[in-house]
């Protein structure tokens, strides 16, 4: 089975001592725990595998082994929701500098009850009390905790998501997304964020006959810039961009509100800092729908954590991203793609 865990994605601000694993079966396939699992490319509801070298997979039926490389996950596999309800609570608590003791006093719960809730022990009454203290939507949190909702599939021609492994000590099954937007006629392509390595992106570009015209980085955290150097060798000179307030070595700097034209694509950079000091989101027109590549500013049902810039991040997400047209596709750095309408309806932070 594929193994994913829910975690608090806050660059080490909190560390979950015993991650909870979500198990997902696909056609009887077992991934060996000691064999790194490959990157997965998502195109709407379809997926494709990428790996640095051939992987060994085992099917319980011991048949169709060769199909693993070509056809695995092409039907119903989904990127899991990035955060659990406890992660949302922790991000809000850390951002507001409220520890267990303060939450206990303000909610009327015991210290033990608060600690259990933040460790992932779901209790509706306790959750409602703490959510009220933190300014979170309790009903949306309960829905998240119960797994009641998943975003509708984004099937947008000319947009592909590559989901790469990003293992950490406290979260060995972490993943990160990067995206490729391309003109189906000219095959001109733009890469948004560079993931942990360039190989899956380069393989996609080659396999689809694309011409890389630009690379745009949302922020400089290491899981988003791993492939920058290799991609810069393929992109036209000067066409690798990063935020001016969060520079990346070798990248041209983009100021907030900067606008670019790349082939048929019109791109506007908007500052959505908070999770990181200078992050940009890229609002892109040129596909059938407007798309926002948001990095770690906002996730499906959550957002990037911040110790110092929590309120800034909330305001940026609310005023610069969730104010876009409701059918705008949101492409986050972690978790599944979503839309403005879906996040307004389901994200506990808003």
What labels would you give this structure?
10 helices, 25% strand, elongated, eight-stranded mixed sheet, alpha+beta, disordered N terminus, 350 residues
Written overview of the protein:
The chain is an alpha+beta fold and 350 residues long. It folds into 3 domains: 2-71, no CATH class; 85-146, lambda repressor-like DNA-binding domains (434 Repressor (Amino-terminal Domain)); 159-346, Metallo-beta-lactamase, Chain A (4-Layer Sandwich), CATH 3.60.15. It is 25% helix and 25% strand. It has 10 helices and 20 strands. It has helices at residues 67-71, 85-95, 100-107, 111-118, 124-134, 138-146, 199-207, 228-234, 310-321, 340-346; strands spanning 2-6, 20-24, 29-30, 39-43, 46-50, 58-59, 159-165, 175-182, 188-192, 211-216, 240-243, 252-254, 259-262, 265-271, 280-285, 291-295, 298-299, 302-303, 329-332, 338-339. An 8-stranded mixed sheet has the order 5-4-7-8-9-10-11-12. A 6-stranded mixed sheet has the order 13-14-15-16-19-20. Helix 3 (100-107) crosses helix 4 (111-118), helix 3 crosses helix 5 and helix 5 packs across helix 6 (138-146). The longest helix is centred in the last third of the chain and has 12 residues, at 310-321. The protein starts with a strand and ends with a helix. Residues 1-40 and 42-76 have low confidence and may be disordered.
